[in-house]
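Subject: sequence -> structure tokens, single chain

Hey, anyone have a minute? Need the predicted structure for the following. Not urgent.
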Amino acid sequence: MFNKNFIYENIKTLFYALIIAVVIRSLFIQPFYIPSSSMEPNLLIGDRLFVTKYSYGYSKHSFPFSPPLFKGRLFFSEPERGDVVVFKTPADNRTDYIKRLIGIPGDQIQFIDANLYLNKSEIIKSKLSKTKKVFCGKKSMDVFTFEEILPNKRKYISVYSKEFPFQNSNIFTVPKNHYFFLGDNRDCSKDSRFLSSVGYVHKDNLVGKAQFIFFSSDRSEGSIFYFWKWNKSLRIDRFFKRIR
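Reply:
Had a minute. Here:
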């Protein structure tokens, strides 16, 4: 015979635990998984990271399934150029993307001879001595590696294909309340350059700021359940690595 009180107490405990988890995930911090190579070499496929939800305030996209609880953004705090941001892509307001914020409202962005310009000034980039390969999907790509410096002194690593396929663009003028994002893997990223699929991102679509990687594994070396392959599959050096 079942003890009704026992069942009731367990259901109540699970309910409270679910509510607490939803509150933490919606208001404070949420884990995300990196499924693509668009942010290499800074973020790798298999990285798991924490995103702070409170960094830019809250919109309906702060909550699971984006319920229309309210309009606009509450407690809004302006993001900064160089932030690595998770946002809902404007194409469907559902899919999570993660990119680097390059342009804020009113900025003009343009590529000229494969160089990035912000408000008609070329973004300073220094070629690093090492060249390397990064992934683009399942294929590897030879790239040049640069350190780029934004006007607010934020530094980060970007990579460009040695063939520099994205040479020139029209001027992108960021509308009011919108932002312009680029992937660090410049020639393997669907980002704000592609207006039909991503384009300018409204501030209400911001989900949160990426802060640090808490776990990373290389799935090409096998499942993490194959403990005898952990020496190859786990990227220990990336655990608790701060995202810059």
